[in-house]
């Protein structure tokens, strides 16, 4: 979830371009739009804490 937090803090929005790759401080790359799409499609299997963390980032579908 650090990748989403980093992106939203930097860009000020929750909409991510389809091909966007987020670079983390440790050097790893994450296809953020794919990660967010996976979280959204699996939201019925996420814990309450995970959903709350995503909702706190401003992702309406997690609320």
From TrEMBL:
<protein>
    <submittedName>
        <fullName>Helicase associated domain-containing protein</fullName>
    </submittedName>
</protein>
<dbReference type="Pfam" id="PF03457">
    <property type="entry name" value="HA"/>
</dbReference>
<feature type="domain" description="Helicase-associated">
    <location>
        <begin position="2"/>
        <end position="58"/>
    </location>
</feature>
<dbReference type="InterPro" id="IPR005114">
    <property type="entry name" value="Helicase_assoc"/>
</dbReference>
